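Budget justification aside, the reviewers requested a transparent look at the raw inputs and outputs of the sequence design task funded under Objective 1. We therefore reproduce one unedited record. The lines immediately below are the structure tokens for a 307-residue chain.
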């Protein structure tokens, strides 16, 4: 049984608000319901836009930590936790990051990705245990994610991480949230009440996904994982990605197919190295050295090669 205090807390949250005008939604034709949902979703981007300065400040802080070897860690429960795990899992194939550099923690562990783990989200102690298992340091950044902004697992993760000197970000969808207050960087994307009362996998989930996209993608841009809008650190782990690698080298250099194949072979399939060998007219070992000296930033390596 839930306590009256918790019920009162939930009733005060924007994300939990009841919308009387939608009380007959189940009587509507399917197309009308779809139009309603689409109209609701249309406002999410503007809610995110209102938080762009805070998002940018968080990105710069995360990138600074990661540039000196730190990690980006997401911590959340339920939908929020799943979104963090999703974003983290997509960084290795997209940006060729080590799987341990961007980590998604979900209350209840891997089992919670596909089924509910009773009580897990209510445990700040579990969050502390999960973070301690990573050996968290002051170079790391922890992003607590919670639509309500009150989930004990997310708040506990941020509080524990901050106590260890790590950078902390709190992402929620309610104003004046405990999560944002606990973090150095609070991001509150207020999307309003949901179409289905309290179903925060809808607008709130979409908003969180958009912000996580920004946090990881722009951080990787700042870390030199791209060249312009090309994913030059993509990991060619399957046929599609191998074809994409060749296309990226082609777009970046305009080289002929045989030159691209030769450059990729010489660089061991590393797209960034292949581009550098072609644009700077240098060999593979020299390209590797210049990239290492430039911290992996292709533009800086090209500038060094030029002289």
């Amino acid at each position: 049984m839930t306590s009256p205090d918790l019920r009162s807390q939930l009733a005060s949250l924007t994300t939990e608000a009841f919308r009387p005008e939608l009380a007959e939604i189940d009587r509507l034709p399917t197309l009308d319901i779809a139009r309603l949902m689409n109209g609701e979703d249309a406002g999410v981007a503007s809610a995110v836009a209102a938080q762009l300065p805070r998002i940018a400040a968080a990105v710069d802080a995360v990138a600074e930590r990661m540039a000196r070897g730190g990690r980006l860690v997401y911590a959340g429960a339920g939908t929020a936790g799943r979104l963090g795990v999703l974003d983290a899992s997509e960084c290795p194939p997209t940006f060729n990051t080590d799987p341990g550099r961007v980590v998604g923690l979900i209350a209840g562990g891997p089992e919670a990705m596909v089924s509910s783990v009773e009580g897990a989200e209510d445990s700040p102690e579990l969050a502390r245990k999960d973070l301690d298992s990573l050996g968290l340091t002051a170079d790391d950044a922890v992003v607590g994610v919670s639509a309500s902004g009150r989930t004990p697992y997310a708040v506990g993760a941020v509080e524990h991480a901050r106590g260890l000197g790590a950078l902390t970000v709190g992402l929620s969808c309610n104003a004046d949230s405990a999560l944002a207050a606990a973090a150095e960087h609070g991001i509150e994307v207020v999307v309003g009440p949901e179409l289905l009362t309290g179903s925060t996998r809808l607008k709130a989930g979409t908003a969180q996904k958009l912000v996580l996209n920004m946090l990881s993608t722009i951080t990787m841009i700042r870390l030199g994982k791209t060249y312009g809008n090309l994913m030059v650190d993509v990991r060619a782990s399957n046929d599609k990605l191998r074809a994409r690698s060749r296309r990226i080298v082609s777009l970046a250099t305009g080289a002929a197919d045989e030159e691209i194949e030769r450059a990729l072979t010489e660089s061991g399939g590393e797209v960034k190295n292949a581009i550098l060998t072609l644009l700077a007219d240098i060999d593979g070992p020299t390209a590797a050295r210049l990239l290492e000296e430039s911290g992996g930033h292709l533009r800086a390596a090209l500038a060094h090669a030029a002289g």
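The mean pLDDT is 93. The beta strands are 72-76, 102-106, 141-145, 167-172, 185-188. Computational costs for records of this kind are itemized in the attached budget.
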